[in-house]
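Good morning C.,

I know you're traveling, so I'll keep this short. The sequence:
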Amino acid sequence: MHSPLDPHSPIAAWVDESGSNRALDPHTYILSAAICMAEDVEATRDQMRQLLLPGKPKVHWRDDEDQRHGKVTATIAECSCVEHLVVIRSAGAPSRSEHRRRKALELMLFQLTALDVGPVILESRGRKDGARDHGLLEHMRVKRHLLGSIRMDHSPGPADPML
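The tokens, ready to paste straight into the viewer:
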């Protein structure tokens, strides 16, 4: 199951997230986006599928062993049609993880709009969290922080190799 790409929006982004390693980078939340032209998506998905380990539903940095990180990094670097945008939100004082995520997502959506991205696909975290993400998107539109035609979809991580 892959989120449909709008033919009128030739640029799409897939967003993944990570919390911090509390010992190394406390109070940090990371969002990263793989930004790709719609015409290059299937070829890029094929490259990512080649990285799947037997029995694993998706490529995941945290689950891989250190020696495999080089292969994953090299394969992604060879995907010449993919640009990467990383947003890191680090609060000076402790705050809830969901607050740090929301602030990072606000900045991510603003940056993706500036790059004329149409569809943004995030890994699904459940119906309630998806509704909260859509509420944030709508709030940003009402406040006129987003003027482009960006839209948001959610997909299970294992269903789309771009995630």
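Safe travels,
E.
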